[in-house]
Amino acid sequence: MKKNIIITAGPTNERIDAVMKITNMSTGALGNVIAETFLEDKEEEIGTIYYISTKMSYKPRIKSEKIQFVTVESTQDLLEALKRIFSTTKIDIIVHSSAVGDYAGKYVIRAEELVEEIWEKVQKAERKEEITKESLMAIFENPMAICNNSTKISSYEPHLMTMLQLTPKVISQIKEMAPEVTLVGFKLLEGVSKEELYQVASNLRKKNNADYIVANDLSKIGNGKHWAMILNEDGMQAECETKQEIAKTLEKFLF
Predict the structure, then answer these.
(1) Domain range holding 131?
(2) Count of domains observed in the chain
(3) Which of 86, 113, 227, 233 qualifies as a cystine partner to 145, CB 3.0-4.6 A?
(4) What is the pLDDT of residues 223-242, one digit of tens each?
(5) pLDDT in tens, 72-115
């Protein structure tokens, strides 16, 4: 039976206002190589590859009716795209290489207005005991004078502040949406020992019920090299030195 596959690639972009975004340095290059390798080697065994990425991410150039491109912007867009696909199609494999941003903008505010709100709280307090860490934190959590993030904020604000909030952990929801899917997750650290990287990746695999984790070290990526280890519930299964080798190794495990 032909396999339906989802490959997520590249960063997510979280809006601050109508033109400013929070993103990361991911390009989608690894996801792109994986998709191209699968199409080159296993096209006859593939039903459809749903390639989910942002507009500016790398995308496969191979012309094939087996690939459908799904463009997303934010973490929430990515989650909604996954839900739509899972609800209509039986997916056999998901290679979740997308570098989902950890944070999104919660609100933008001028520092002067935030200080004014805090100062007003202090001035209105009749007793010192009324000024608590909790009461001040409540102002930071939900201030009154936030900027409208649906329009462009002025370029001349000297003390503009952004409050960030955590984004949903996409990998933690995949097996909830599709319990039978074979899930390949990714973990990126920088400048750590191989033992530490393995332990962190192993914990990630267990926590999210992933079948495989591709564990990367940023300090070992560049100049045509992309070192990674691939592990599953039985431990480390392979070490790779390039993106192409990662793709070929995953192909061997998944087909």
Answers:
(1) 107-165
(2) 2
(3) 113
(4) 999 999 999 999 999 999 99
(5) 999 999 999 999 999 999 999 999 999 999 999 999 999 999 99
Which position has the token pair 């899972």?
Answer: 86
Contact 73, 13 (CB under 8 A): yes
Q: Provide the whole-model pTM.
A: 0.93
Which residues are CB-neighbours of 222 under 8 A, at least 6 positions away? none
Please tell me whether residues 151 and 177 are part of one structural domain.
no
77 with 140, same domain: the answer is no
Would the pLDDT of 210 be above 90?
yes
Q: What is the pLDDT at residue 144?
A: 92
Q: Which residue has the tokens 């192409």?
A: 244
**Which residues, including other chains, have CB under 8 Å from residue 12's CB and lie 6 or more apart?**
23, 54, 72, 73, 74, 75, 77, 78, 98, 99, 100, 101, 167
Q: Are residues 53 and 174 in the same domain?
A: yes
Q: What are the structure tokens assigned to 240, written together?
A: 């790779």
Q: CA separation (Å) from 142 to 14, 116, 145?
A: 19, 14, 9
Please identify which residue in the block is written with the tokens 């929430």.
76
Residue 119: its H or E element: helix 111-124
Residues 90, 8 share a domain: yes
Residue whose C-alpha is closest to residue 184's, from 208, 148, 166, 149: 208
**pLDDT reading at 126 higher than 90:** no
Q: By percentage, how much of the chain surpasses pLDDT 90? A: 90
54 CB-side CA count, 13 A: 24
Rounded-to-integer distance, Cα 35 and Cα 26, Å:
16
Q: Residue 78 in contact with residue 8, Cβ under 8 Å?
A: yes
* 11 and 135 belong to one structural domain: no
User: Structure tokens of 37?
Assistant: 């390798």
